[in-house]
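Entry type: protein chain
Record version: 2
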Amino acid sequence: MSEIKVNSIKGVGASAAAITVNNTDGTCTANITNNLSNRNKIVNGSMICSQRGSSFTSDGYILDRFKRSQSSDGAFTVTQSTTSPDGFAKSLKVDVTTADTSLAAGQFAQIIQKIEAQNLQDLAYGTSSAKNIVVSFYVRSNKTGNYSFNIQQNDNSSKQVTLNYTINSANTWERKTFSIAGDTSGVINDDNGSGFQISWGLAYGSTYTSGSARPAWTTYADADFGAGQAINLLDSTSNEWYLTGVQLEVGSVATDFEHSSFGQELALCQRYYFKYVQGSNKNICTGAYFNSGTLTMSVQFPVEMRAAPSLDYVSGTSYYLAYREGGSDPFDSMTITNAHGNGAGLDSAVGASGTQGVGASVVTNNASSYIAFSSEL
């Protein structure tokens, strides 16, 4: 019996493939690892993209595709951290800044990602062919003990699974995996809405912990949502919690995390949020004066956004500047018009003053200026 080593095969990732050939009966066995691309349903699971910034102190979207949600008397900051397990460069870090040692029944703190429903159609939920899924991630904290992890089916009255994991060793990266049987009764709509909502519990009051963990899909109940969560991460300002390497895939066994290039991951993130320009003296686009007080502009997106986006930008005195007719015309604010998945119009709202029909080149005019478009779930 001889063994032939093949370093690369078309369609196979960076890992080598080993093919063993039996010269006696002519059969061969291929042992190929990481041969399936696009298997991870999570966007930005390695936490490498953070278009909104690197530090966040309030609720809402933070690192791309991840969201913080909190109702408690404590406070925490989320940052994009360089503390990470081998093979990763970034992680999501939670740093408690104000302690809440006694949670009220309805209080909570969690990290969330939502997955677009049409990206889950291969799970075949709602049919007899419903597939198993495996969720895996790397987690680290100084606070050991039992935490909860929840997935909700948004299209099926938030039908849910609630699972638990244990951080065994303080300040040590640990990989956690969960295998979840397919749901033959839970249809996921083929649309651009939310199909799954995944939640990592940081702290839950008794409203969310008085029930039971549910490893199979069951009817939503508040009491089961965070069941098994024994940790209140908010009980000390010394507490930290890290997350990276998040993967959700079809199958029964967790595979190695599927790394993508920064450019690939950024393009996936830009379907939901697109930071168009930031900083001073950055080109925005060209435009023309619709009338003496309104400058109209047009912006194209690098990828099709999930839905017509809203405008996310900062306004301020002379934050934007239109160069026209040998001079410049500052303005303060703008509105979005005719938005669709591939682009949008922008109209100056305060300050612009020019000649109808005259063209202009538009730039940012303040270090704090930015323009972004949001189409989050």
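Comment: Confidence is low (pLDDT under 50) at residues 1-21.
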